[in-house]
Amino acid sequence: MGKLVMPKERKFDWDLKPVSSVHWGQVKNKSGQLCVVLDHSLLRGLSSEMIAWWFQHFANLKVTLDDIEGYENTKVPAYYLWHPSDHIEANFKGNLGPGSTPRAGAKIQIKECMQYNKYGLKYPVDNELKIFYCEDDGWGMGKQIPLFGNLIFLRISFKDVIENGKILGVHYHYEVVAGTNKQNLLAQTINKKIVGQFTEEFWEAWITHNTIEVGVFENFLPALYNQRADLDNLHYAKNMNPISKEMASQVQEGVSKDLLEERLRGYAESINAFDYQKGQEKSFL
After folding, report:
1. Pair type for strands 62-65 and 234-236
2. What are residue 161's DSSP bridge partners?
3. Is the pLDDT of residue 165 over 60?
4. Domain limits at 211?
5. Is the pTM for the entire model greater than 0.85?
């Protein structure tokens, strides 16, 4: 991995969601695989249709930042909006559909640094992942190697929360499995290397990064989605943020702690966590 060059921070003036706004936990299963579950707070003002649209297009989109300090009237990757300080670049490759949108079998290249403002380049990400699932209810991507199969898999699920026929927001749920379920000496060595890199500080950085990343959908995604008829002329300005100060000050927590605990129990009891995760199938939400 070469040294990543970070773009300057985007001062959107958003109130970023704290880690206390999510439920999360991690376990190791009977095979030594690491399993992490993160259940986000309700994404207010959004629909799952918006989230699915974003995942189909985000790596291809450019957006002009009208009034963001240091970026005035500058066209930048829309990926910059998905985190104010940690994101660098994302690209779709390989098996692409109309408009260079991803489908199963495509790859995504992601470049970012988790909690860059706190840790600098200590936790860089420069990974190419294969996309196994990209539908209107979720996203699944990971890495495989011959003989061992999956080594890491990230599964994202989302679903509308509806009350009295009205969409209140989106339930967004994230699960990560790392390590092989194989038990031979080479497999144990691989697991030690993969799982061993995920320290307590690393998870603090990742959970914080992911909480912010998902939370800011509320701040920018409705504005971009409303401009989807003209993808070559996207704009974002501070007054497009629909989250009021009153909404930003509301105390939130993960949508379903019961679901979090159920999933952690299932992972803990599994022999192969990837079989329990079912990352290439329709969402369980």
Report:
1. parallel
2. 169
3. yes
4. 26-277
5. yes
